[in-house]
UniProtKB/TrEMBL annotation:
Name used for this protein in its record: MarR family winged helix-turn-helix transcriptional regulator
KW DNA repair (keyword) present: no
Pfam families membership: MarR_2 (PF12802)
Keywords, comma-separated and alphabetical: DNA-binding, Transcription, Transcription regulation
Source superkingdom: Bacteria
SMART domains: HTH_MARR (SM00347)
Signal peptide range: none
The HTH marR-type domain, residue ranges: 10-140
SUPFAM superfamilies reported for this sequence: Winged helix' DNA-binding domain
Amino acid sequence: MTTPRTDPVTLEVVELIGTVVARYYAEYEQAAAKHSLTGAQARVLGLLTLEPMPMRHVAQKLRCEPSNITGIVDRLETRGLVERRPDPNDRRVKLAAPTKDGIDTARRLRESLDFAREPLAELSDAERTMLRDLLKRMLGEEAPAVP
């Protein structure tokens, strides 16, 4: 077992990551509210615009209970932003998928999020790539090979 690092730089990095996350979520909630969505609804809608998926997969990706996702998808469906459709690979499974209005709403929501874009714009391509790769490494994901 490794000993947790408590050196000043590590502690500062942890605090900065926490601050970035808190600011991102605060702005995300505000942007969602402008579209009459909760933050959770906006996150589900954004995830579904990447690819339609069963609600249990949405729950796994967002690390929450499937019953919560069912309620969120119900409300998004009522607003005409999401629909349930059969999975073409397994007709017993229902996929949650964005409607055209859902895709448009998710796009407008993403476009209204300035917090991450503005500070990242100050970084060079190489710095943004390095930051991405370091974050992936922290998460245990493979970063793409550098040519």
